[in-house]
Design brief:
Blueprint (H helix, E strand, L loop, with lengths): L6 H10 L4 H12 L4 H4 L7 E2 L4 E4 L8 E4 L2 H14 L17 H15 L9 H13 L4 H8 L5 H23 L5
Length: 184
């Protein structure tokens, strides 16, 4: 079964990570754009178009790259990050500004903040952000083909998995509400 963060867990992660601008921005962008760990290091300054409010998302694993909208809050954080960290070409760099941030560092970031907010260790993986976006979009009623495009899936079957999770989650929450007498 695919692991994902519940909305309240994700909110806690985002809130606690605000103490570190880089980490917060990485978590926010990775969730909102469904980034894999290796895709985070692919983002270049040239991929960000503040004027048109777009960000180009590179995809790996034969995924389909695309332009995504760049919401105002992300753009503001990106400007602040660029001013503070002065990246040269790679947005999120490692110890050397010429090399992208490592997957190991990204996994450490998620593990650290997950532990701080009490998220179970089995969910504390970077890829959980990507899965969370898929599930949350389906839960919000977004069409499966749109979710497929956002996540860059070539094969719709990779996206359909999220509908099954959202259905089982709905059923579990419904039964929980019934058993707790919140419903008649």
């Amino acid at each position: 079964m695919i692991k994902f963060f519940y909305q309240n867990e994700l909110k806690k992660l985002l809130e606690i990570s605000k103490k570190n601008l880089r980490d917060h921005l990485i978590i926010l962008l990775s969730y909102r754009h469904g980034l894999r760990a290796s895709e985070v290091g692919k983002i270049r300054l040239s991929d960000i178009n503040f004027e048109n409010k777009k960000i180009y998302i590179h995809r790996l694993k034969n995924g389909i790259p695309s332009l995504h909208p760049l919401p105002d809050d992300e753009a503001e954080l990106l400007r602040e990050y660029i001013k503070k960290y002065n990246p040269e070409e790679i947005l999120f760099y490692g110890k050397n500004k010429k090399k992208p941030i490592s997957r190991k560092t990204l996994h450490s970031i998620i593990k650290k903040y997950s532990k701080e907010v009490g998220i179970p260790v089995e969910k504390a993986h970077f890829h959980t952000l990507r899965h969370s976006l898929g599930v949350h979009l389906i839960e919000a009623g977004v069409d499966t083909r749109v979710v497929q495009s956002i996540l860059g899936h070539k094969n719709i079957q990779n996206t359909v998995i999220y509908t099954q999770i959202a259905d089982s989650l709905r059923e579990r929450e419904y039964l929980k509400a019934l058993s707790s007498k919140h419903l008649i």
